Amino acid sequence: MTKAKTLFISSVVLATGFLAAALISGNYQIKSNEMLASLSSCPVIPPHQTNISVNPGAPEINQSVSIKTDDIPECPTSGIPTSCEWRWSGSVNRTTTNKPTGQFSTSFSSSGNKTIHVEVYSSMQGICGGELINVAYGDISFNVSGNPDPATCSLSANPASITSGNSSTLTWSSNNATNCSASWTSSTATSGTKSVSPTATKTYNMTCTGAGGSGSCSTTVTVTTNPGPTLSCSLSANPNSGSAPLNNVDLTATVSGSATGNINYYFDCKNDGSWEKTLTGQTAASKTAADLCDYASNGTYTAKVKVEREGLTDTCTTNITVSSDPNSATCSLSANPASITSGNSSTLTWSSNNATNCSASWTSSTATSGTKSVSPSSSTTYNMTCAGAGGSGSCSTTVTVSSGPTPTITPTPNPNLSCSISANPNSGSAPLNVDLTASVSGTLTGSINYYFDCDNDGSWEKTFSGESDVSKTAIDLCNYTSNGTYVAKAKVERGGFNNTCTTSISVGGGGGGDCSYWQEGCYPTPTPTITPTPTPTLPPIACSRAPFGPAIPETLCLVTVANGGTCVLTNNDGFTVRLNIPANAVAIDSIVDISIHNPTDYPQLSRTIGTSRLIGPKIVYIFAQDQNCQPITFLKDAIVTFVYPNSYSQGYLESSFIVENTLSANGFWNFLPSSGNTAANSLVGVTKNLGYFGIFGRLTPVILGTATASPTPSPVCPAWPTPTPTIIDRPTDAELIEAFFVASLIDSFKNLKISWCEFISFLNFLLILLLLWLALGKKWLNNSKEKDSAQLKTSVSTTPVVKRENWFKKFFGSIAASFAAFALVQKKAWKDYKAQNQERKLARQNGKSLSVASLIIPETISRDNSNPEAVQGPQFIAFTEDKN
Question: DSSP per residue over 559-591, as a string?
Answer without folding.
Answer: EBTTTBEEEEEE-TTS-EEEEEE-TTSSSS-EE
